[in-house]
Amino acid sequence: MSGLIHIYCGDGKGKTTAALGLALRAAGSGKRVLLLQFFKDGKSSEFSALSHVPGIETVPQTRTFGFSWTLSDAEKAEARTYYSALLEDAFARSADDGLLVLDEAMSACTTGMIDEGRLLRLLAEKPEELEVVLTGRNPPQALLDAADYVTEMKKIKHPYERGVAARKGIEY
Predict the structure, then answer these.
(1) In which region does residue 10 sit, left (phi positive, over 0), alpha (psi from -120 to 50) or beta (all else)?
(2) CA of 41: how far to CAs of 37, 49, 131, 148, 167, in Å?
(3) Buried b (16+ CB within 10 A) or exposed e, 72-92
(4) What is the pLDDT of residue 1?
(5) Strand segments (E) across 18-115
(6) What interhelical angle do 73-93 and 116-125 show, nearest 10?
């Protein structure tokens, strides 16, 4: 069976957690895993743990840009160039029979930081055995159509609604 495309989406907690669970499973079976997180600075707790797992490589973020709605047109163009290069590099570096996790790819698409059409072409042209996971809110319909698995995390209740801030080791 060839590698398939997974989407973990929705407004609930657990999208990245599910993707990283699959990454651990893949690494445990001897597959090479490459993890690229858009909009995250690599300082979350999972990055610390993943650095100790043989077979899992994380793509470090050397730049941060802030929220897309706060950026000037020039900053948006710079961010698009940066994130597009990361995307291209991630596909180029992925093992033919490995797993590529593109965390927050949906947000990168919906904010225009990566081109949806280019992502769709990369998915269509990926090595046959490469498994790809995309996470984030509000996936474009074309990505939903391209996926083999689509799992939606639905928020029923979250402590943030009561003013509880994100906690290290649980939410980050």
Answers:
(1) left
(2) 8, 15, 24, 29, 16
(3) eeeebeebbebbbebbeebbe
(4) 64
(5) 33-37, 56-58, 99-103
(6) 0
Confidence of residue 104 (pLDDT cuts 50, 70, 90): very high
Determine the number of helices (DSSP H) and then strands (DSSP E) in the chain. 6, 6
Question: Residue 44's CB: how many other CB atoms inside 10 A?
Answer: 17
Where b means 16+ CB within 10 Å and e means fewer, 154-163 reads: eeeeeeeeee
Given this model, what pLDDT does residue 55 score? 96
Taking the model in full, what pTM does it have?
0.92
pLDDT at 48 (0 to 100): 82
Q: pLDDT digit string (tens) for 32-44?
A: 999 999 988 777 7
How far does Cα 170 stand from its chain's mean position? 18
